[in-house]
Design brief:
Elements lengths: L1 H29 L20 E5 L4 E6 L2 E7 L21 E9 L7 E4 L4 H9 L9 E3 L9 H4 L9 E2 L2 H10 L4 E6 L1
Parallel strand pairs: 1-8, 6-7
Antiparallel strand pairs: 1-2, 2-3, 4-5, 4-8, 5-6
Length: 187
């Protein structure tokens, strides 16, 4: 019986020692290894932002003045980022043209700007499958209370379908983008 307990204890200790490493390895495999570029914010340099463009495959959000990029940010997407959002809980970030229609300074995340998903077409597609399209898709900062862990979120897709940036970046976007601004989200 002692050998069995010893073997069991050794197995448990091995599992405990390797599980965090396995989790860390999995997270690192998902991380973007490119160095983030610093965003310099000089208010006098800012032109009007006429639209927002997100390129999911690049993990970039662009603030645009007509066809000129005014600012660019590294973003995190939903845990399942490929493809258009089909239903609530699929952890995908939608694709298409929407509007940034309202904002919330008291959200569960540090500031959030609402994306007008689902569109009528999104509702029709989900309904055809008997599913709820979901909603509450936002551009937002980190979860409240996680400011000290910002480094752990950088480069990972961790949202339930939203577009996440750092708290400093959402502050800048909050100032530069007006309600009613169109947003295009591309694969």
């Amino acid at each position: 019986m002692l050998i069995t307990r010893a073997a069991f204890s050794a197995l448990v200790l091995f599992w405990l020692a390797t599980t965090p490493q396995a989790m860390a390895t999995e997270l690192l495999a998902k991380a973007d290894t490119r160095m983030p570029t610093e965003t310099t914010y000089i208010p006098a340099d800012i032109e009007d932002v006429s639209k927002v463009v997100v390129r999911k495959s690049e993990r970039r959000l662009y603030l645009m003045n007509d066809e000129r990029v005014v600012r660019s940010y590294r973003v995190s997407l939903g845990d399942n980022p490929e493809g258009h959002k089909l239903y609530q809980g699929d952890e995908r970030t939608p694709e298409g043209t929407y509007t940034l229609d309202w904002r919330n300074s008291e959200s569960d995340f540090y500031r959030s700007i609402h994306i007008s998903y689902p569109s009528e077409r999104d509702r029709e597609l989900a309904s055809a499958w008997g599913l709820d399209p979901g909603g509450s898709i936002m551009i937002h900062g980190l979860p409240n209370g996680e400011e000290d862990m910002a480094f752990a979120y950088r480069g990972l897709d961790w949202t339930d379908g939203c577009i996440a940036v750092t708290n400093e970046e959402i502050d800048e976007i909050w100032q530069l983008v007006s309600d009613g601004t169109p947003i295009s989200i591309h694969p």
